[in-house]
Amino acid sequence: MTDGKRPAMKTAERAGSTRARTGAVARIPFAARWARVKMVTPVLVWAVAIRLATILVDYLLVVTTALSVIPMLGAYLHRQSGASLGEPTASGAVALWLVPFLFVVALLAVAQIAFMRWLWRTGSARIAGIKRARLHDQRQDLGKGGR
Predict the structure, then answer these.
(1) Labelling 27: which of 72, 82, 97, 130 has CA 20 to 30 A away?
(2) pLDDT tens across 49-67, in order?
(3) Are the C-beta atoms of 131 and 44 separated by less than 8 Å?
(4) What is the pTM of this model?
(5) DSSP per residue over the chain, as a string?
(6) Is 123 exposed, middle or buried (0-12, 13-18, 19+ CB in 10 A)?
């Protein structure tokens, strides 16, 4: 029958030690582990991860817009313009439905391109910050070793 304790705790209790000694295992806080991971991981790995994340977000944004937002927007404009009521002429369909639809699609495209550029520039700034931090740490290490 098991009592739910870890094997290391069972052997410590059998040896006559107190639980306080086995429970006092030094644990590294998450922030310290994350800082160590950040300093050990090469800059190239961070750069590739940041760029891939940016490309993935851009792809999801474009696909979502192209497959759901624009068709729903087109259907909404078609219904609201009155082009779906009766039989409008070709020039009426263009004036009432197509031009406003193309205008809104162009606005969406400009907004998405601006957002994508912002993401790319933010990633570039983050990569540059990682490089600067690494160079700063290397300079500090060189300064300590020379003395």
Answers:
(1) 130
(2) 999 999 999 999 999 999 9
(3) no
(4) 0.63
(5) ---S--HHHHHHHHTT--HHHHH------HHHHHHHHHHHS-HHHHHHHHHHHHHHHHHHHHHHIIIIIHHHHHHHHHHHHTTTSS---HHHHIIIIIHHHHHHHHHHHHHHHHHHHHHHHHHHHHHHHHHHHHHHHHHHHHHHHH-
(6) buried
